[in-house]
Amino acid sequence: MNNDRREFLKQTGWTVLGGSVYITLFSLLPGSSRAATATQHLYAFIVDTEKCIGCGKCVDACKRENSVPEDFYRTWIERYTILEDGTVTVDSPKGGSAGFNPVKTAGPVEKSFFVPKLCNHCRNPNCVQVCPVGATYVTKEGFVLVDEKHCVGCSYCVMACPYGARFVNPHTHTADKCTWCYHRIMQGHTTACVSVCPTRARLFGRVDDPQSSVYTILKKNRLQVLKPETGNEPLTMYIGLDKEVR
Amino acid sequence: MKHYNHIIRCILLLVIVVIGFFIARGALVPESFGVHGTYTYGYHRGDSAAEQADRYALYQGSTKCITCHAEQSLLWQPGRHAAVSCESCHGNWQAHNNNTSATIEKDNSVETCMLCHRKLNARPSTFPQIPEFGRHLADQDEQLQQGMLCVDCHDPHDPM
Amino acid sequence: MHDIITSGFLFPNEIEVHWSVMIVLYPYITGLVAGAFIVSSLYHVFGKKELEPIAKFSLVGAFCFLLFACTPLLFHLGHPERAFNIMFTPKFTSAMSGFGYIYSFYLVLVLLEIWFVFRPAIVQRALESCGIKKAFYWVLALGSSDVSDEALAIDHKIISVLAAVGIPAACVLHGYVGFLFGSLKSNPWWSTPLMPVIFLLSAIVSGIAVLIVCYWVVMVVQKKPVDTACLHSLYKYLWGFFILDLTLEVLEVLTMFYEAHEEWHIIARMLTQKLGFSYIFLQMAVCSVIPLVLLGFVSLKKMSEITRNKLGLICSVLILIQVLAMRWNVVIGGQLFSKSLRGLTSYSPTFLGREGLLIALILFALPFVTMYIFNLILPVFDKQETQESES
Question: Which CATH architecture is the domain A126-176 placed in?
């Protein structure tokens, strides 16, 4: 018995020693002690569902600007049709990239509207939380990006996103999604979808700049986000979001 | 002690594997990999963001277009399509710039206008919409012919 | 991609199912590892002497399944050449990041235990054979021929420690696979704290069942009589763990049904319309009710040993199918309904192709091939040596 205990203590000792050596090695090798640059969430995206006309210009522009592969979408438009008897139908033919045609309904329409969707660039993105290799991250400006040179293509983030914003790009075989046109913003443009929207249903800008198009809306409007119960805290916010939208 | 010989060899082998792992890690992990911001949301290859920012923007915005197309801009800017950017209808600046014949994407079909102005239940009721193109022609003037285009009456740069 | 049948509305990126049959196979094989190892530990740690005939084999079985546990993942990854990123730059906020380390730790542990258990046999062969064969066994023995009583006594102690450490490790390995799914708040079919527990129990169940089936096959092929006491004991364990497993599986769905959150209506539609065969028929009816009842008789009722063993074998096969169906229903089922809760997509694996059924079948056959090869190098069912290693 005594012998067993000594053996056990010895084992524990080795484990602790091994563990500390391991951690030390990890902290000596590349990628450990970097100056921490605090992440700020400097930007917000506003979608005004009351202004969207479903022309699909945004989806088309996004596809071209970002070479989005066929049948996948970084942004898309959903059309909700709610009949007087309460039935809800939702459609998004080709993500809305070629606009919408009138639909025949089974009964009189109570209300109908478009809802553009895109990556929410959440404050607490669980897609980033679940990436096992650190291939998706939040930039210091608050953009959620994917490092396609490091991504292993496990699709765990695709599963974790509650909004269906992510997909695996069939050409790069890595996770892909809306970047809020990070390259354009860094070069002083606005996002491709915002720049072609004819009704200003999409707005994007800095939250701290009184000149930006989102500044007053953030201060004055009552805004909703998608699936707030996830705790992800989306920074893509909606005006006039209906209860049927998820 | 001499009966521990095989165990020592076994441990040595393990140590070699672990050292090999760290050598491989040191060689293969990019230099800029690490915590930038918080660990949860900022553990990544630091160079990645800069690489992604370094990509040419196809859509350059109307301000760039009107440096050459001043004539159209004079019509467009005070008109009711002022909120519609050049690239919404004419395609992106880069495509035009790369085009050697320097022609611009210009589609005068009824469908082009209907993309935004076809009557749909889901469109805001205040937005100008045409329920049926044939009816619209008849409503305006009896002399209007079938086969006419929107652009025959409305200048797309200033439609009213 | 165009011939996928959908109904209702799905987010446009959800039409394609990203986690394929490979991700069904991965937890299935991992489960067999955990289960087989627990059986070997019942003997090595808890001293269940009646399991002795299968003790060595369960360890070798666990090792062979473990060797191939991550191969389905390599066929699924978009960039398998970057697979080691998970160990080079693990981000520990991700449930998945632990995989590389937990898997490696467990592999080393099982490898060490096997080495110590088989060391006398290796040394014996190194001394008896000659030429290349001698060299091969000599390398396997790490050049040490010390099989004195003192050395074996030390080995025996180490085996006990490794087997003891292996139990929580096996639980972590498979509980963790369940956690991968259970911790995703975005998916109501996965997100339940019961998920790791269900995965663990079904792993143990499938591991015991696969050992029973393999033991049978080996005994039939080698024309040896089966050890009835050993099998009877395994049937009892199988029955006990299966009762727990099935209870939790039913409770999970019952709770979802009774709470009836907004997602229940789409989950109910998915279970009835899309998983009618694999969930209702296989997992919940045929492959669970029959083994549950039959194993009760097999474990408790007096009957001839031949009948008992035949019924037990049938139950084991049914349970293996039940657990496979359960993995399918979890992994594929979770992707068949839209996160908009408004529509369903469908999935049927291709036969050929990187993530097709053929590769899946080959990957599943490989552990058994490895067991066969292992047996050629070091006989697993040699009674003489088993006793030697225990002395």
Answer: 2-Layer Sandwich (3.30)
Q: How many CB atoms lie within 10 A of CB C116?
A: 21
Please state the pTM of the whole predicted model. Answer: 0.90
Sign of CA dihedral C12, C15, C18, C19: positive
pLDDT of residue A6 exceeding 80: no
Mean pLDDT by 10 residues, chain C (391 residues): 77 94 96 93 89 92 95 95 94 90 93 94 92 93 90 92 91 90 95 95 96 93 90 95 97 96 95 95 95 94 90 96 97 96 94 93 96 92 50 33
Instruction: Residue window 205-224, chain A: list those with CB within 8 Å of chain B.
Output: none
> Tens digits of per-residue pLDDT, A146-166?
999 999 999 999 999 999 999
CA–CA distance, A57 with A73 (Å, rounded to integer):
13
Provide φ and ψ at A111, rounded to 5°. Answer: -155, 160
ipTM of the modeled complex: 0.91
**Closest partner residue to B29 among C89, C119, C141, by Cβ?**
C89
Determine contact: A60 vs chain B, CB below 8 A. Answer: no
Check for a shared fold between A43-122+179-239 and A126-176. Answer: yes
Distance from CA of A151 to the nearest CA of C (A): 8
**Residue C100's closest CA among C24, C173, C190, C23?**
C173
Does CATH place domain C8-390 in 1.10.287.370? Answer: no
CATH fold, domain A43-122+179-239, is Alpha-Beta Plaits (3.30.70)
Instruction: Kindly list the domain boundaries of chain B, sorted by start residue.
Output: 58-105, 107-160
Please tell me which residue of chain A has the smallest CA distance to B26.
A29
Residue ranges of the domains in chain A?
43-122+179-239, 126-176
C26 Cβ neighbours under 8 A, 6+ residues apart: C69, C70, C72, C73, C76, C177
